[in-house]
Amino acid sequence: MDTVVSGIRSTGNLHLGNYFGALRNFLKMQKENHCFFFIADYHSLTTHPKPDNLHGNIKQVLAEYLACGIDPEIATVYIQSDVPEVTELYLLLNMVAYVGELERTTSFKEKIRKHPDNINAGLLTYPVLMAADIIIHRAHKVPVGKDQEQHLEMTRRFARRFNSLYEVNYFPEPDAYNFGQELIKIPGLDGTGKMGKSEGNGIFLADTPGVIRKKVMSAVTDSGPTEPGQEPSEPVKNLFTIMKVVSDPSTVKYFTDQHSACQIRYGDLKKQVAEDIIKITDPIRNRINSILADNIYLAKVVREGGEKARESASKTIREVREIIGYKQF
Ligand code: TRP
Fold this sequence. Notes:
Elements: E1 3-9, H1 16-29, E2 34-40, H2 51-68, E3 76-79, H3 85-94, H4 99-103, H5 106-114, H6 121-124, H7 126-135, E4 141-143, H8 149-165, E5 175-177, H9 209-217, H10 234-246, H11 249-260, H12 266-292, H13 295-324
Parallel strand pairs: 1-2, 2-3, 4-5
The structure holds tryptophan.
Tryptophan binds next to strand 1 and helix 7.
């Protein structure tokens, strides 16, 4: 059985991009692999969340994981900060990560551009912590969205460098995993770019049907095709991209043909997209609410998951210390 690791940062509610980019793959993988799914709450500290919000954010993402169908009886579900071995491996991996390559990381450069007032060292070494998360369980596969490809490439590089520095073949080089098809990117509703937690263009799994309808109906479009067979503009293409993941192929074909024939009514397209999103999110939202109300269940999941994760992580740390040359006095 392959070992699979993936995490989601606890920085706000999960959206459709998380669901289709990551979670749906987690679900497919949990039966056939040895899976570790965690809440990346240390990673969320780069943006300095208030102490009053931290716990609630973690709890929300945990409830959302479970509501989507991640089964803690099969997969190991845990909170990153419950596994201190991860931070030790992070420190050790920092010795084989070079400042130059960290500075050149796309996500780091983006952060500098967007938040020049908070370029902390945690942001610089974000890929090292992510690598520690993954190789602490000596994972083979990592289901992630397209935006994480570069981080995963760095994980492979750190693992390779560790192996060659100590002349061992200890850490496998993990691959990004997304069930054959290319990595999925769900666009936002504002016409450009991907759906993000912070971009204000997302549909959340916890959104009520009313909110979803309102958001989709106000998505950016254009003034309509003028020539038969014309390529849809970027914002319209984005709506079709969402439709392709939430609607039946026959529905997609119907609206694509309507667009080609210059007969499309964007209002109808949006109504259809909204209803098909709701069909997927509504049962999930109901489960989120009932899980959130069950603190005893949540505490049990976190305790048992944390114990299993630490068992795996402490074995790795013991072996890594030995490889590096630490010996008992
Ligand atoms: N960086 C990932 C994201 O922003 C979250 C993450 C942290 C992660 N550690 C990980 C994903 C380990 C996969 C494996 O989405």
